[in-house]
Design brief:
The complex is a heterodimer of chains A (about 450) and B (about 120).
Chain A: E1 3-8, E2 11-16, E3 19-23, E4 32-33, H1 37-60, H2 67-86, H3 90-108, H4 115-146, H5 151-157, H6 162-179, H7 187-194, H8 197-222, H9 228-251, H10 256-280, H11 286-323, H12 339-352, H13 359-374, H14 376-401, H15 417-435, H16 437-451
Antiparallel strand pairs in A: 1-2, 2-3, 3-4
Helix pairs in contact in A: 1-2, 1-8, 1-11, 1-15, 1-16, 2-3, 2-8, 3-4, 3-8, 4-6, 4-7, 5-8, 6-8, 7-8, 7-10, 8-10, 8-11, 9-10, 9-14, 10-11, 10-13, 10-14, 11-12, 11-13, 11-15, 11-16, 12-14, 12-15, 13-14, 13-15
Chain B: E1 3-5, E2 8-10, H1 12-31, H2 73-78, H3 80-89, H4 94-114
Antiparallel strand pairs in B: 1-2
The chains are: A mainly alpha (about 450), B mainly alpha (about 120).
């Protein structure tokens, strides 16, 4: 049953339960929108983080030139990410990805007086367009063979032949690049560290749109038509590399934002662990025993990560805003003058390190237990990564907030109110997700699992 | 507050209550301490560190602070065989980024095409 909402000329917006579609009366593949559990969860994450980032930007960028251009590009990025999240066919998703790539690259280079920001933006743009060229190639092949681009309609004609497997391989690599999985991660630390912190927060969620697309491709489009065990292991291996190499590189960084960027890569590994195990056991009885739980952990970790990583990037931005420094060697003793920022940092750092009772622990606990039943070595790797994460955030905490005050930072003040409100919004979200993990899973994760067709 | 999954049980409230309970025990033990104790100038300083006690009036404390690079120096040096090539791969050159992208693409396409 279709419910017409409004009509403009020959176009009408009609809504069906679970599906939102613009139609001219006949089937037009580029106009599909899909509102289901996956898009709902992704849009909630984006809305919370972009609201916090928007509030934070108010004072963070007040003294920069071209603030109106910043807001224009920021809103385009947020709108484009919503477009990516809701698009129900490959071509629309491709177009939205282009929009977001262009706007985020411009935002990375927002501080045009910083040559390294330009360099980072150029690298980000070049790599992204290379990846999207492959994406376009694969969807052209898919359209040529199957005559469809809409996810569910394409799924009906997928047979798992050689061409389908090649299409899937290309799409997996492109989405792994988008989500920042190792060894496709190189550009992420460059771009994350040079972009304004409010932009970095949204870029984390944009990266997660790559993960959501990866899950859509594997679960909604290809399903069990391909060898899911092999696909699952490809995703798990990408996850292991991401988690371990991400945290190893974070440990040796001296730039606060670059260190956090490597942690974003490392945390992506956990999501890939969880969902990879779910993919590997798809269609088997193991899905009912631990595969589903592994996916719950992986998907819940996406939500947790967006919130606490966003919070950490905002605290890093506040420190850079007040001190003008991003080198950990040149900071110290800021805890006396920036008490609120320190408190928010502690909340974010404990959450990302998986310290109970914070939300990072909850999703990691589910991942540890379920992944252990698939392969215990993966759990050992995940726990080592968690310990190294705590170690490197202790390094940041001590280097920035503890020790004697630096003479040049004697008069440093607390971050401005708008920035504190942005950080507080995410800190409160972390606490709520920590206190009510069951409600969060029932409200957000389970509908997403259902939309992906994961039934125990 | 309960999180009950097929193989996982977790309740943050129990954890918080336990933390409060342990905090109360710590406070009780603390309050049983010697109330006649007087604070000294060097309270809390390590007395066998090999360094002279830090004078509170000392102006320049910056040099004694542990800086970012000093953290885990031993750990990273001991695992140099792992960290050195790892850092070396992160060259910052766009050509290398493209190489890794193309290599990964090749490997995944070949694996999925063959199996």
């Amino acid at each position: 049953m279709w419910y017409e909402i409004f009509t403009v000329g020959e176009w009408s917006l009609a809504i069906e339960i679970g599906t939102l579609e613009l139609t001219t009366g006949e089937h037009v593949f580029i106009n599909h929108l899909l509102a289901d559990g996956v898009s709902a969860m992704a849009t909630i994450i984006l809305s919370i983080t972009s609201l916090a980032a928007g509030l934070y930007s108010y004072t963070n960028l007040k003294e920069e030139n071209g603030v109106s251009r910043y807001y224009f590009l920021f809103l385009i990025t947020v709108a484009g990410t919503h477009g990516m999240i809701f698009s129900a066919d490959f071509f629309s998703r491709f177009v939205w990805f282009q929009v977001v790539t262009a706007s985020t690259a411009a935002l990375v280079a927002f501080r045009k007086y910083d040559g390294r920001a330009f360099e980072a933006a150029l690298k980000y743009l070049t790599l992204s367009f290379l990846a999207w060229s492959f994406f376009l190639l694969s969807i052209i092949i898919a359209y040529h063979i199957h005559g469809e681009m809409q996810f569910y309609e394409l799924a009906e004609s997928i047979t798992g032949g050689l061409a389908d497997r090649i299409i899937m391989a290309i799409l997996i690599v492109v989405m792994a690049f988008k989500s920042g999985a190792v060894p496709l991660h190189f550009v992420k630390p460059d771009a994350y560290s040079r972009a304004p912190s409010s932009v970095t927060v949204v870029m984390v969620v944009v990266s997660q749109a790559g993960l959501w697309t990866l899950f859509r491709i594997i679960f909604n489009v290809f399903g069990t038509n391909v060898n899911t065990y092999v696909v699952g292991w490809i995703v798990i291996i990408l996850g292991v590399f991401s988690a371990f190499i991400g945290v190893s590189m974070a440990l040796v960084q001296r730039s606060i934002k670059r260190l956090m960027a490597y942690h974003a890569i490392s945390q992506t590994g956990y999501m890939l662990f969880g969902v990879g195990v779910g993919i590997a056991v798809m269609g088997t009885t193991d899905m009912g025993t631990f595969g589903r739980d592994a996916m719950v952990g992986g998907i819940f970790h996406i939500m947790n990560h967006a919130i606490y990583k966003g919070l950490l990037f905002l605290t890093a931005g506040a420190i850079i805003f007040r001190t003008g420094e991003r080198d950990l060697n040149k900071m110290g003793g800021l805890g006396r003058n920036m008490k609120w920022t320190m408190l928010f940092f502690i909340i974010g750092a404990l959450a990302i390190s998986g310290v109970p009772p914070l939300n990072g622990f909850t999703s990691k606990l589910i991942i540890y237990r379920s992944v252990y039943m698939f392969n215990p070595i993966l759990t050992v790797v995940a726990m080592i990564v968690s310990i190294l994460t705590l170690a490197s955030f202790y390094k940041v905490f001590h280097s920035v907030f503890m020790g004697p005050e630096r003479e040049k930072h004697d008069d440093v003040k607390e971050a401005p109110l708008a920035m504190l409100i942005g950080m507080a919004l995410l800190a409160v979200s972390v606490i709520l997700l920590s206190l009510f993990p069951g409600i969060a899973i029932d409200m957000f994760v389970e509908p997403a699992m259902e939309a992906l067709g994961v039934i125990a | 507050m309960n999180l009950v999954h097929s193989i996982t049980y977790w309740n943050p409230l129990i954890m918080i209550l336990m933390a409060c309970f342990i905090g109360v025990i710590i406070y009780i033990i603390y309050s049983l301490g010697n109330s006649s104790y007087k604070e000294t100038k060097y309270r809390g300083e390590p007395f066998l560190s090999g360094n002279p006690p830090i004078d509170e009036d000392e102006k320049d404390k910056e040099p004694i602070n542990i800086r970012g690079d000093n953290f885990y120096w031993g750990f990273i040096t001991a695992l140099k065989f792992y960290f050195k090539p790892l850092i070396g791969r992160h060259t910052g050159r766009l050509n290398d980024y493209i190489f890794w992208f193309m290599l990964t693409m090749l490997v995944v396409v070949v694996v999925l095409a063959l199996i």
